[in-house]
Amino acid sequence: MIHASTTAITRPRSLDEALAALEKSPGAVLLAGGTDLMVAWNAGERHLPERVVDLWSVPELATIGVAGDALHVGALATHSRIVGSPEVRAHAPALAEASRTVGAAQIQNRGTIGGNIANASPAGDTLPVLLAMDATIVVASRARGERPVPADAFWTAYRRTALAPEELIVRVEIARDRPQVLFRKVGTRRAQAIAKVSMALSLRRSAGGAVEDARIAWGSVAPTPVRARRAEDALRGKPLDAASIGAACAALPQDISPIDDIRSTREYRLHVAMAILRRALSGWVG
Amino acid sequence: MISFVLNGQPVSVQAGGLSRLIDVLRHELGLTGTKEGCGEGECGACSVLVDGQVVNSCLLPVCQVDGSTVQTIEGIGGDDLDLLQRAFMEHGGTQCGMCTPGMIVAAKALIDAGGAPSLDDVREGLAGNLCRCTGYAKILDAVLAAAAARREEAT
Predict the structure, then answer these.
(1) Where are the alpha helices (DSSP H) in chain A?
(2) Fold of the CATH domain A181-282
(3) pTM (2 decimals)?
(4) What is this model's ipTM?
(5) Which of A126, A206, B18, B107 is the 20 to 30 A CA-CA neighbour of A115?
(6) Are B20 and A5 inside 8 Å of each other by CB?
(7) Domain A59-175: which topology?
């Protein structure tokens, strides 16, 4: 049971109020749907904070829509809303696919994309997709306004992010002209599983079939969500054939550093990662 | 003071804002139909509806239900059982009973969404609810039967 009467909770009703609250107490813990924080607090893995800014009732943070060339997904958009959003399904279907694998209905109704990003678990289901889509994570503080951070630069170390103490995540922006992303998640069961390995893969190919650009992102195989840059390099400029696919798979173990933990082993994760990459590239159409 | 509508009645409670909704329901408000299984969002025994959406009350800080509508198992059915409750009885969807309130709450959210859920839809809708007794088959039968009965009522 959480005995939390000493925690001061601010419940802003607008983005301005939220930014002001955070400026007043930088380092306050930001609460969204609570699906990660409540577990950690209840288990005693995290001390109850002195100050919490509860973002749940900030409407500006919850919008999903298209603005110009980009899909904008508010930080407070729940996984349920992402799964049900016609805009996400049209412009970033792999994101909807990933959100659909986060827990089950109870978690998807509260868990948010901003929470997934800020919690910075290497197993966060949407994170490899955001890397593969070259998404921009827009953060803001009252003093400096908005600041775009590329997903590539957001997760800096195990459970560390580029977010400053007085900043919050406002939204994710995904360019609408991105090539589609293939998402694969390997867990113990289909529902309610935390990933042993997950992958998000996008390729852009020339008319002649050569790979012009590749983004291959992974979850649960390193301290942060990571791109497999050596594997990407092995594909770039090459036709997608047995030689380039073999080279990409051979390069993969230098890109990732899986460990043994309660969910899986280093050896299994390496094996599965190479297998799903090989299968995805071999079956690639388009 | 945190105020919300609980099973149709307005309530106000004095509680730390990060207190779990399940503790407030069971210990402050005396509604013990909502069960605690794992306490970490894996098992769904503590499922309740907040503004019509199924959530785990063990992961919900009570400050976040201020101004919301909360429905627990006690608010489903009355002197007459709800058709989901009848279907669970008729199809043997309950054994020890620990998961049953959460199952019925999650199934209610699914059925209230309307349409004609398939077996796969029901499996996905109940994926966050664990049962260690029934092997699930009879629960799935019960929910499919209740969904069909609901459609019949509507026509």
Answers:
(1) 15-24, 37-42, 79-84, 86-91, 93-99, 105-108, 113-119, 127-132, 229-235, 242-255, 266-282
(2) Enolase-like; domain 1 (3.30.390)
(3) 0.96
(4) 0.97
(5) B107
(6) no
(7) 3.30.465
